Amino acid sequence: MPLKLLQMKNSMLYVMLLLITITSACNTRSYNTRQTRATSSKDLVAPPGMIYVPAGNVTMGTPGQNGDSTNMKKYRLSAFYMDKTSITNKQYRQFVYWVRDSIAITDYLNNKSYFQRMRTKDTSAKANINWDKVGDGRSIWRSKNYKIIDKLRPMYNQGDDNQSGNGELNKKILNFRYETSSADKSKSGYSVIKEVVNVWPDENVWDRDFPNSQNDLMVKSYFTNPSFDDYPVVGVTWKQARAFAAWRSKVWKAYNYKMKNPKLISLTMDLPTEAQRAYVSIPSVITNEVSIKDSVSKKKIKIKKVINPLQSGDSAFTYTMPVTYLPPNKFGLYNTVGNVSEWTLNTYTLSWEAFVHKINPVLLYDAKDSDPETLKRKVIAGSSWKDQATQNIPERQPEIQDEAKSYIGFRCVMPAPDFNPGKSNFKTINKNSK
């Protein structure tokens, strides 16, 4: 499907995700991470930044009235790949810049040199962007060619919107279109849901979450300043997180198509389910067994508690910290407890276990903007930098899907085949995504 401009009253520009389809994926911008350690076996290689999580069981449920575990159920999870860390500011900026550059090339520059050569005589077909030519976008945005500068001028804030006086990019036009499928028993088994999402994170969450507090540095610098490159991205809604996963899936599939490596698996990435997130939430520091309460039902259950280093008095960080600052857990995952809470795929309800299967459970409802807030609630997992020093592991919290917070980030997962790692056929390699 080609990229096209959707005309709307507010002149907002939408970018079609399917620009980088598998059939035209010989050229695409890379998804880069810093010295990614990818898990490999004889038969498969993990996507950059992800590691293999073997199949296993996880016990979840609503505690009984007396705080016992009679209502707890065991669920079986297939193997999957998961990001070692929360998505960082630097990684999320790659997504934002891809959207920015796509809009600039297709809707403003209209320069044939930025597009792939057509291999068809069909005059109605549109060429796709040649990302090898575009590179990281510097040739566009740092160009001194007055023709390029003049064509891109409408992409910047004008008049009163240009508050800094330095020619800021109009963030309102950075909109991204993607598609997801959802189960639909009334039709053919599933339906396609089309979403249009503005991709720029909400930088004002620091002031909104903590009024009457000095947060100017975080508001103005946290997402854009390279000093915070390796910190978790925040201010991202549930739909923005899913949009990132959809974009990254296409980039990964395009890379696989280009490499033609049978060890690479091209499946769709998404947010982890609540069960997947609970399965891997093994902290680095655990203390004695305690009684806690569910955040909504207030029922108690015996579990262990974890020390949140950001609030224990031993941390050098007031807010978030670099995603690999603390050691990983037994799965090799960083900050599954602490730093930032993370979006999951699941819809939040107290009776969720009555609706899910015992194998790979998930309860997902794609709420519309017009739906009431009760239908928009999603599960966030893990404690964050703002929580108390001793934060309980299984406590699940609801959050409205279109609300952005300074303490909520996300990471992605991708399905993987089950196999026995074993020392003979399972190893860790250093890999940069190119």
From TrEMBL:
Transmembrane segments: none annotated. GO terms for molecular function: formylglycine-generating oxidase activity. Residues 48-413 form the Sulfatase-modifying factor enzyme-like domain. PROSITE patterns: PROKAR_LIPOPROTEIN. It comes from the Bacteria. This is Sulfatase-modifying factor enzyme 1. It comes from Pedobacter nutrimenti.
